[in-house]
Every structure is written in C-alpha cells, then in structure tokens.
Amino acid sequence: MAVVAAAIFVATLVVVIWQPKGFPIGYTALIGAVIALATTVVGLGDVPTVVGIVWNATLTFVAVVLISLILDEAGFFEWAALHVARWGRGNGRLLFVLIVGLGAVIAAVFANDGAAMILTPIVVGMLRALNMPAKAALGFILATGFIADTGSLPLVVSNLVNIVSADYFGLAFAEYAAVMVPVGIVSVLASLGMLLAYFGRSIPKRYDVLALTRPAAAVKDRATFRAGWVVLAVLLVGYFAADPLGVPLAAVAGVGAVVIVLVAARQPAFLFARQAASPVLVTTGGTATVTGGSGGTVGGSGRVMPVWKTIREAPWQIVLFSIGMYLVVYGLQNQGLTDYLARLFDVFGDHGVLVTALGVGFVIAILASLMNNMPTVLIAALAIGGAGATGLTHEVMIYANVIGSDLGPKITPIGSLATLLWLHVLDRKGIHIGWGQYFRTGIVLTVPVLAVTLTALAGWLTLIR
C-alpha cells in the first residue's frame, strides 16, 4: 500500500503542476483524494480529521485574497504604488528599494498571492510609463515576484502555508507574530540586499517623476478605498483578539471580506463623474498609454465596479485543493512514509538549534522547490508531529518548516502555484521569463536569503526562550 500511496501522490502532484486545460487544481486534488479513498490508502474516518485541519486556513486565505482583489479594483494598490514612486524623487535605486518595501508590506498584510498577482501588473504599467530599459524593468519585475514570498513570513495570514502550519500546531496569532515578525524583517532585508547586488547595475540612476499620474487619479471608488483602511485596522486588532476569545481567524477575515464586498456593491454602484486634473495611465493589451486631462472623467459616469465577477474569480479552488491534497498526503502518513522524514529531522535535532533550523529549513526548501510548497508543508507538519523532538528543538522545526515552505519555492517555477500564475500573467503582458532563466536567478537569490533567515530564527528563538 505504501507504493500505491506514493503513486497517487506523485500522479496528483504532476497534474496539479501541469494544470491541463479543464482540470482546475481543486478538482484534480479531489480526484486524487477519491482514488486514495477507493484504494483504502485513506479511510472515510480520515475525512473529518483533514477537513478539521484545513478549513480555517483555506477560508482565511480566500477571505484575505478576496479583500485584496476588491481593494485592487478600487485602485488601492495603484494609489500606493504611485505614492511610492513619487517618494523616490527620481532616484532609480531608491525607487527599487521602495517597490521592494511596498511588496513586502502587501505580502505581509494581503498574503503572497496578493502581492505577486496584484502589484506586478501595476509595476509593469509604471515601468512602461517611465520608459525603463528592458533590463532594468526585468529587475523590478523579478524583485516584485521574489519579495512576494520572502516577505510573507511575519503574520499567520501572510501565506496559506503559515496558516496551515499555525493551525496544525496550535500557534496563536500573537505567538506566531512574536517569533516571525523579527525573523521576517531579517528576511526582507536579506532579500533587499541580494536583489540590489544582483540587479543594482541595471537600475537607471534617474527616472522622470512627471511621467507618472497623480495617485488620487488611481482611486476608482472612494468609498471602498476609505472603507479598506478601516477594515484593515479592524482586521489587525481582530487577528490578535481572535485566539484569546476562541474565534477562528476565518471568522475575522470573513467579516472583513463581507464588509468590503457590501461597500463595493452598494447602490447606486460606482456612479461618479470625477474630473481628471492630470493625465491617467491606461494599460491595454500589455501596452501602457497616457490619456485624459483636464475636463475628462476618470472611470466614467455609470461604470459599475465588478464586485460579483471579483467574487467568482476569488481562489475558491484552493478550498477544494487543500482538502483533496491533504487527504492524499494523509495517505502517505497512514502508510508510514512520513516516518522517514521524521527520523531525518530527529538527526538534525540531536545537533543543536542552529543545525536543526538549517537542516530542516533546507530540506523543506528543496522539497518545496521540487514538488510545490503546499503538499510539502503538509508532509513536513506530519513528520514534525511524529518526530521525537520536544521543547525548543520542536519549536525550531515548526518555524523552519514555515520558512523553508515560504522561501524554498522561489528556487524553481513549480515551487508554488502563485509563481506559475505570476509567470502566466507576465506572458499575457508580453514579458516572457523562461524556466531556465528563472531557475538561474531564483537559486542565486534564494539560497543566501534562506540561510540568513534560518540563522536568524535559531538566534531569535534561543534569545527569547
């Protein structure tokens, strides 16, 4: 049965990564789960256990991404990016630093998928408006994609991987943040250093600030834009209060999503005729042009914000994927295959905190880069749960699993579904990044950042414990 369990896992994973047309990842994972049940690799009694483990994580993630999608339609992120570009005051290198910083903040608050999928098109449009050289533009784009994952460590909600791990090991939001906010800052700084070292020479010294539109012109729905700030503030408080009150994070994020949807879908919906005081950047078919001017309207009277379309396009497939894939992975545990990984982790645990952090983190990173980070974090969580480590060593393993699963996927394009989608979005905008080029860049950037971040984890946990 162990061979059957492994075969089902590999086959499911191949189809998920391949993503053939007509086979969404959620349905693919569910088919794998059905086969696992039919072959008795997992039993019906395992289904409630798996659903109990993943429901809070997946619904929280969907709610956070839905909030980010609605705010993106309202112009929230374009407004932020344009402000950041103006803060650069024409200094190319400062603009690069600020864009990376903005990406890290968006990743921390709106999850890595939000940062990669929403900020990247905005940055592409901005770079085209500034007439950035192709080599420099590629550096900005790759930096945006890279920081989306390396900046997704600080909060439980910053990455689906974080939520799954925190739920499995019972980590409270505040408890997780106390460890990972400082470690996450180190990760961002290390990423920034590597990105500057790698792309620094291609970044132009100056850019024309006047080529950019006013930030206010990016706001398409002022009520939703303003409500977004309130919702984000309430969410942050709610996240910290949820655990002491026994409220699941999915409920907190879900309420925030409902509020922002209701504001965006209000009647009359999105009706306005605001005068444009400056040119507006419009991107059509991957080409940025500047239109508008005094006397024109931004958005146009009667334009309706596509709220229901945005809701339909939210990552609902992730819910099915999480349940289905975890059932397939659970079959590996039932057949004893995760025990081998648990024994390896125990070997690392026998050699101190630093070796544990580096050993577990790099093993997880390699697995994530080869077979995607979602099944990896699930397999590793089961292995850590079955390992003999206790106390500080056990805690280091838990957080090293998160770091390896967050950062490791940047080594290869198949490391995370977000990266595959990000590459697809770039292709649609006429920017092709080959897998070979991605790997050559990803491994050079990721390995040093991963080593620094895991070392910071070991040092910080040793200090505070």
Give a quick set of tags describing it.
465 residues; globular; mainly alpha
How would you sum up this structure, described in words?
The chain is globular and about 65 Å long. It has helices at residues 2-18, 25-38, 46-73, 76-87, 92-129, 134-150, 160-169, 173-199, 222-245, 249-264, 307-312, 317-334, 338-349, 353-371, 373-386, 391-407, 417-428, 435-464, and strands at residues 280-284, 287-291. It has one domain (2-464). It is mainly α and 465 residues long. The longest helix is centred in the N-terminal third of the chain and has 38 residues, at 92-129. The protein has a two-stranded antiparallel sheet with strand order 1-2. The two termini are 42 Å apart.
Oligomer: single chain
What kind of sheet is the major sheet?
Answer: 2 strands, antiparallel
Total DSSP helices: 18
Count of domains: 1
> What strand order characterises the main sheet?
1-2
Distance between the termini: 42 Å
Q: How much of the polypeptide forms β-strand, as a percent range?
A: under 5%
The coarse overall form would be: globular
Taking all residues together, what is the mean pLDDT?
A: 85
Q: Share of helix among residues?
A: over 70%
